[in-house]
Amino acid sequence: MGTAVGSWQRATLAWVLVLLAGAGALENGLARTPTMGWLHWERFLCSTDCALEPLSCVSEQLFMQMADLMVSDGWKDVGYEYVCIDDCWMSLTRDHQDRLQPDPERFPSGIRKLADYVHSKGLKLGIYGDVGNKTCAGFPGSYGYYDLDAQTFADWGVDLLKFDGCNYGTQDQLAEGYRNMSLALNKTGRSIVYSCEWPLYMRPMQKPNYTEIKHYCNHWRNFADIYDAWNSVKNTLEWTALHQDSIVDVAGPGGWNDPDMLVIGNFGLSWDQQLTQMALWAIMAAPLLMSNDLRHISPQAKWLLQNKDVIAINQDPLGKQGYRITKDNNFEVWERPLSGGAYAVAVMNRQEIGGPQIFSFSTSFLGNGLACNPACSIQQILPTSEDWGLHNWVSFLNTEVNPTGTVLLKVVVIGESPAEKPVMNINKKPSPDIL
Ligand code: GLA
Questions:
Q1: What is the distance in angstroms between the CA of the first residue and the CA of the last residue of the chain?
Q2: What does pTM read for this prediction?
Q3: For all residues of the chain together, what is the average pLDDT?
Q4: pLDDT for 193-247, tens place per residue?
Q5: 371-395 core/surface letters (b: 16 or more CB in 10 A; e: else)
Q6: Quick one: which H or E segment has residue 36?
Q7: Strands (E), 216-297
């Protein structure tokens, strides 16, 4: 009986604390739309030997160069803002006051100076830590030092923390650690985006409570690390679609599901697969954190990553995450509700054999029948920008999609009242040469 009362009291206290803290998203005013920037991990990993790899080791020079290019090559102009350091920036030991410190050889000027440099370019700096005893690559973790580390990051002028979950101890310590770091960041008074991996580490043992996670984090990784490979992108999409009932609704301004970095501009994806990653990351309202080498990137990859129409879908102010509406052996179709009653629609050809395939669909199939009711204009955004013209709620459309590629459309509803109904193009079929 004593135990029952104790647990009841604890539960009540927990609820009171939740209510006091305020319900809903982490209200630090940040990440009102998905974070955009650059993160070193997928492309540069834990390269620490600057004698051997001077141009790709994890060093202040790498981040300064990326910051320079983000401004000079137009990345900042289209919204990429955060230059983010991942694992392997630290010394193997804390300093004499127990503070984290950067590797002195690779970051001789220190993080404060690097942050100043990045800020002088009008950009923001992200850094990496870990909830447990050690980071995934074996550098010092923040367990037992949440307040001190949060304050150190704030003192340095850091604007985003990616907080990993390796070596976390017990499930309770994992959850407590993620909560405590969120509170510690808040206490510093500095605006620091909090990027978590909490559900990824939690899921093998326990179903994540996304309402709680959103209360503490600005974005959160759910699934395995992304690789520069189609299988990895495909598996990330499949995982997201299979779990959409539990993860889509929670996403919104201030808190986003994070399917991991964009690997566009690297080595492993074909052009069509890069189109698919960009289109689907926009549909998923995913943070757009590129991991590539901005010093060596093809004009084509740059065009895709800087495509303003795709970015506008990703950054849509309504902040609703998209979802898959159908999948068969050949195609899958995803849609995302946008502000103003519009929809983004992605048609992906799943086949990894053969050539381009035609997908035929009725507009009545989109947005639960509302996307084009009574009429709509359709703009193709990827692979190329094309106007598909005006349609009505029963128009029938065909589109040709390359294997593992995607056609991304924006459907804008028009003609709410009969008087406004425009003249329509029924059964317009875009000619293959525009695709
Ligand atoms: C984990 C994370 C990755 C990356 C590495 C660094 O695997 O999921 O995104 O940060 O650690 O060691």
A1: 70
A2: 0.91
A3: 92
A4: 999 999 999 999 999 999 999 999 999 999 999 999 999 999 999 999 999 999 9
A5: bbbbbbbbbbbbbeebebebbbbeb
A6: strand 36-39
A7: 219-221, 256-258, 288-290
For residues 100 and 98, give the distance between their C-alpha atoms in angstroms, rounded to a whole number.
Answer: 7
| Nearest atom (ligand 1) to Cα of 135 | 12
- The answer to whether residue 164 is catalytic is yes
- CA-proximal residue: ligand 1, atom 11 (nearest): 136
Inter-residue contact 347 to 333 (CB < 8 Å):
yes
* The token pair that represents 340 in the structure block: 């103003």
Active site residue 225: yes
Helices and strands in the chain: count of H runs, count of E runs: 13, 16
Q: Is the dihedral of CA 60, 48, 236, 231 positive or negative?
A: positive
Q: Report CA(208)–ligand 1 centroid distance (Å).
A: 19
Whole-number Å distance, alpha carbon 223 to ligand 1 midpoint, is 11
Q: Which of 268, 194, 182, 176 is nearest to 229 (CA)?
A: 268
Q: In this model, does residue 426 exceed pLDDT 70?
A: no
- Among 88, 136, 262, which is best to mutate for testing ligand 1, by the most ligand atoms less than 8 A from CB? 136
Query: Is 6 strand, coil or helix?
Result: helix
Active-site hit among 164, 258, 260, 272? 164
Angle between helices 230-242 and 271-283 (to 10 degrees): 30
Q: Among 218, 285, 288, 286, which residue's Cα sits nearest to residue 31?
A: 218
